[in-house]
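STRUCTURE:
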């Protein structure tokens, strides 16, 4: 075991083809990736893995993984944050992540535990759909992006969103979580 994850061997990442540790969490991430490509019409090149977000809260800082970033025509239109367990507690940090990951707010934030998903409008903070099958199809996301406001946040608002991410994702993380980096 590494950290608190049971290592079941190795698996091939559906998106990149690289070899990853086979964990229960990674199996769910692979399931989400397959849904995006095989059912929702995204090209593998449009689904970007390995994203990290650096956040700061006063003198404290760190970085967290953002499981998926979906990019169409050079702009990110959706992020998906995976985490086991309850989705409702993951909504607020996912909204904050979507607002600061890029130089502009990403229009759609999704949280998933691999069995379910909540899809959120970043502009209104409202739940717009639930379920893995409710993840937007490529054409739907393109339409959402056409009407989205990609104006950057004010510096003060970005700072507050960064603090929210830090509090939920870093300050409250399990000490044995090897994906979180405190700096």
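SEQUENCE:
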């Amino acid at each position: 075991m590494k950290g608190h994850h049971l290592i079941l061997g190795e698996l091939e990442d559906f998106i990149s083809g690289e070899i990853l540790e086979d964990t229960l969490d990674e199996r769910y991430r692979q399931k989400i990736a397959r849904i995006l490509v095989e059912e929702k019409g995204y090209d593998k090149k449009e689904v970007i893995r390995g994203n990290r977000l650096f956040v700061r809260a006063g003198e404290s800082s760190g970085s967290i993984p953002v499981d998926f970033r979906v990019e169409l025509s050079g702009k990110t239109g959706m992020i998906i944050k995976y985490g086991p367990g309850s989705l409702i507690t993951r909504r607020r940090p996912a909204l904050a992540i979507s607002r600061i990951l890029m130089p502009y707010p990403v229009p759609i934030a999704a949280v998933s535990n691999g069995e379910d998903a909540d899809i959120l409008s970043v502009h209104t903070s409202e739940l717009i759909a639930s379920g893995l099958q409710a993840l937007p199809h490529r054409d739907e996301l393109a339409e959402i992006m056409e009407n989205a406001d990609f104006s950057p946040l004010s510096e003060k608002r970005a700072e507050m969103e960064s603090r929210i991410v830090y509090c939920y994702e870093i300050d409250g993380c399990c000490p044995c979580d090897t994906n979180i980096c405190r700096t």
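REMARK: The chain has four helices and eleven strands.
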